[in-house]
């Protein structure tokens, strides 16, 4: 891990105190049973139910476009800046480029995050870029680059999905030409139970196999979809999932992505109405 | 490598006819060569040549302290180095993005304990564990890097010999490890289920496996499927295009089918390798 010596870094080798608490002695199985009790999750959702979404555009005044999203406790801000010439590039590229930077705020997770991007954040940036590249009409701004910055204020699971959905809104708010509205949903699988839009604890529980049976699947899937074109612009999965479980989950995720679209549309309509009203007042 | 429109059409029509530029069918691989134990300073190594793609993987082992949140587990890290020998594009920091992509793909493919059990690398709970550094050197790029790298990594991990700890002495905060000197005492790791990645590339309306550099230029997008045993451990999309859900599922099924064939072929090859076989680049 490279260190930034220009900053005052926190002390090295610290451990979050939560590791020493009594709760930590519970086995994974009891934790999972508590998380999904009688078909209800801790926040009283059924397994395949999405959390409520709050989405707002235009919250960063300095940026060309911006959006703020809340999925339960998960909070993410995304801002998009004016296209600029691609730095350090000698040849001419026919298509514009997208630069994504995904960052966790130092206080957003249980463990403190460093100021510099770690490998997880770099990976998330790459996935975000992958998702947005096929959404934006990149031929409209050749040799230019659009910068997208996502900052997680509170990580309570499904952060990457939240960031991608918000980035779609922020891009439209910035007036960047796009093919379609993009929505993204995360799904966790554990022991045959599909948990849509998992929170932080559910997501960690899905990463490790609980049942000793070889055939049971576990893992996390993140899908981003373009609604009207019915295209998957990004698909990422980790864990250990059988093909049958995966194909069944894709159907669930497809529907879940479709369900979010009205929220995105409503947010954009609100933005248009607001701009119109401002114009009338002028 | 840049292709003109006519060349792209040629490749595309070939794929449509199930007769690719080099005479292969859509589900065929190019010839592969595999050697193991070729770096004497490494604990395990492998070199894989897939037509023009050349990958060298070496595994180094060091003693480290486990993560406080996972005291029973060892560590496994992947580092990819894109040598400027491969293509001039990798000069300076040019290959960094690709390197990060490949190493991230590997770490998420190896993440599940069902795939590769890190608990076997623990020496003393919460205090000492083995850390495996898997260094991947790309010597030549002829397309299909993900597949070649994953096969070479699996072979190198199969070849890796973890030193045997005979005794652990704890004296206050000091921990002394007594490691066996004899090479024959080493442990092999269980890589039965280590993932194999298959890049399924969509060209026109069809999906092909093992694309060469020219075919990669023609594709709208590809799906990398990492298969461990009979399950999928990681899926990620590369390239700039998007896919219809039906196409995606087709790619996944094809990927699993091909990966299982590759896995059998890899094990057959590994079993044939005899100790003290002639190895090297000039062979």
Automatic annotation (TrEMBL), chain A:
Superkingdom, taxonomy of origin: Eukaryota
GO molecular function, one term: RNA binding
GO biological process: nuclear mRNA surveillance; poly(A)-dependent snoRNA 3'-end processing; rRNA catabolic process; rRNA processing; U4 snRNA 3'-end processing
Matching InterPro entries: ExoRNase_PH_dom1, ExoRNase_PH_dom2_sf, PNPase/RNase_PH_dom_sf, Ribosomal_Su5_D2-typ_SF, RNase_PH
rRNA processing listed as a keyword: yes
GO cellular component term of the entry, any: nuclear exosome (RNase complex)
Domain Exoribonuclease phosphorolytic: residue ranges: 49-177
Subcellular location: Cytoplasm; Nucleus
Keywords: Cytoplasm, Exosome, Nucleus, RNA-binding, rRNA processing
Secretion signal, residue range per the UniProt entry: none
Pfam family, one: RNase_PH
PANTHER family: EXOSOME COMPLEX COMPONENT, EXOSOME COMPLEX COMPONENT MTR3
The name this protein goes by in its record: Exoribonuclease phosphorolytic domain-containing protein
Lineage start: Eukaryota, Metazoa, Ecdysozoa, Arthropoda, Hexapoda
UniProtKB/TrEMBL annotation, chain B:
A single GO cellular-component term on record: nucleolus
Alphabetic keyword roster: Cytoplasm, Exosome
GO terms of molecular function: mRNA 3'-UTR AU-rich region binding
Matching Gene3D superfamilies: GHMP Kinase, N-terminal domain
Pfam families from the UniProt entry: RNase_PH, RNase_PH_C
Keyword hit for Secreted: no
Residues of the Exoribonuclease phosphorolytic domain: 29-163, 195-257
Protein name: Ribosomal RNA-processing protein 42
